[in-house]
Design brief:
Helices cover 74% and strands 0% of the residues. It has 488 residues and is mainly alpha-helical.
């Protein structure tokens, strides 16, 4: 007769249980940033997140759950980000292949000839806003045109950090306002709000935020003191680019392909990978000398050398040796391998967030906040704060959109508030703030592809900062707060 296994007693988490992992996270993250600075992204932040996840796991075990349940929650977290991992690998391959094919050098070359340093930041913001609105993807916008704009900023002598902020601000205009945006559609669906009703509600916070960001970038461009690079340096950069690459409109074909596939709503990872592959295939025809110089394998037959170069550039990135620092730093980038630290960071954050969500630790923190939110303004602020907090602790914008939409939906209905109020607050608190957190999947992605640390570009993400502030203003003033019985 088999012995009877004792039945496990599952205990509800206490408030202290919910707070301990967050305290551990805050201490370890602060220590990592203090000790390593910008280099914290290269491993110390990942270690901090993994040990925070282990702390949460110990609390879950203490409350009576089995290790198998902990492991399953971790697997759920990892599985939720598989599509993002494919996008990251595809972007890494694309940056390397676009450099080798002359696509990014051509964009930069043409940009240098027409750019005005005083208007660079607002121009970068508007270009990214228009592209992201057209394709509905902040990641694709930043990982393609954004990369070229940040590289161009270095070449013309303006701030790469401010440019990254302008790129991200513009990229998230489309992420919020485009009817093609996945997060906009998700926020509308989760709150049972028609998509166009949601977008109209969004316009009341996004419109003023867009104007604030545009005026801000105009003022920064006028007042930041960046006079731009000297004519002599610009001439030397143009000369280096034209020596290394055959500058031609034909090199922009991978960009045209990517835009076309994005408009046709081909999944982002497939569209980006197709553009990267097209660049690798075109490179031997458009940049034969650059390709052979990169692979440096004189013993190989040219066709074999070209195949090896395309394979290698998508794996480990392109390397330029012009002797001019600005040009080499711009072009020596990319490759799937360059995305591995970012993926490590995202996996650690998602496992940590999944444990907090799956075992009720997050709900333990949010429930008292709902009870204390007596006014409409306080309720909207609680939604925005909870969504932002989930970006911090869960490390993923989808978690930051999905959970508040689920948790607060009944409360908005109980108070007679239209669902569009919730969808707007969720998007402004969860979607646009995600790139402001270094270990969030969006913040890690933006830092990786743009080559600018998250905390460095953060102050210049004017649209991302202004949007939730505008939603808070709407909540507390009652302006554009719709009742459930009113036409949306």
């Amino acid at each position: 007769m088999e012995p009877i296994q004792p039945q496990r007693v599952i205990r509800e988490p206490s408030l202290l249980d919910a707070l301990i992992p967050l305290i551990v996270l805050a201490v370890l993250i602060s220590a990592a940033v203090y000790l390593f600075g910008n280099a914290a992204m290269d491993g110390p932040l990942q270690v901090a997140l993994i040990f925070s996840a282990l702390t949460a796991a110990l609390i879950v075990l203490k409350n009576g759950h089995a290790w198998e349940e902990v492991a399953e929650a971790g697997r759920k977290g990892v599985s939720s980000v598989v599509s993002a991992i494919f996008i990251l690998f595809a972007i890494g391959a694309l940056i390397g292949a676009w450099n080798m094919a002359g696509t990014i050098p051509t964009l930069v070359y043409y940009g240098i000839t027409v750019v005005d340093a005083d208007w660079f930041y607002p121009a970068a913001f508007l270009v990214c806003a228009l592209i992201s609105f057209g394709i509905g993807s902040s990641w694709t916008t930043a990982g393609t045109i954004g990369v070229g704009l940040v590289g161009l900023s270095i070449m013309v002598g303006v701030s790469a950090e401010i440019t990254a902020g302008a790129v991200i601000s513009g990229a998230y205009v489309g992420e919020k306002m485009s009817p093609l945006s996945e997060t906009a559609i998700l926020a509308a669906q989760l709150t049972d709000t028609p998509i166009h009703t949601h977008l109209r509600a969004q316009a009341w916070s996004s419109g003023p935020a867009l104007v604030i960001a545009l005026v801000g970038f105009v003022l920064i461009g006028t007042l930041d003191g960046a006079a731009g690079a000297s004519e002599a340096l610009i001439d030397s950069e143009l000369g280096a680019l034209s020596q290394l690459f055959a500058i031609s409109p034909w090199t922009l074909l991978p960009v045209v392909l990517l835009v076309a596939l994005s408009v046709l709503k081909v999944p982002a990872s497939l569209a980006i990978a197709a553009s990267a592959l097209s660049a690798a295939i075109l490179a031997p025809f458009l940049q034969s000398e650059a390709v052979l110089r990169f692979i440096d394998a004189p013993d190989l037959a040219p066709i074999i050398a070209h195949i090896k170069a395309g394979w290698q550039v998508m794996a480990t990135g392109f390397e330029a040796k012009s002797g001019l620092e600005q040009v080499d730093s711009l072009l020596s980038r990319g490759g799937m391998a360059s995305m591995l630290p970012t993926i490590w960071l995202i996996l650690g954050a998602l496992v940590f967030g999944s444990l907090l969500d799956e075992f009720g630790l997050l709900l333990k923190l949010v429930t008292p906040l709902i009870a204390r939110a007596k006014s409409t303004g306080a309720l909207v602020a609680t939604v925005v704060g909870s969504a932002f907090g989930l970006n911090v602790v869960a490390g993923d914008q989808y978690v930051a959109v999905v959970l508040p939409a689920r948790i607060f939906s009944a409360e908005f209905g109980k108070r007679g508030l239209a669902s569009s109020n919730l969808s707007r607050a969720v998007a402004d608190g969860g979607s646009v703030t995600s790139p402001l957190i270094p270990w969030n999947s969006c913040g890690a992605y933006m830092a990786a592809v743009l080559g600018v640390p998250t905390l460095t570009y953060l102050p210049f993400c004017l649209f991302n900062i202004a949007s939730p502030l505008m939603t808070l203003l709407i909540g507390y003033t009652g302006w554009r707060i719709l009742r459930a019985t009113a036409p949306a």
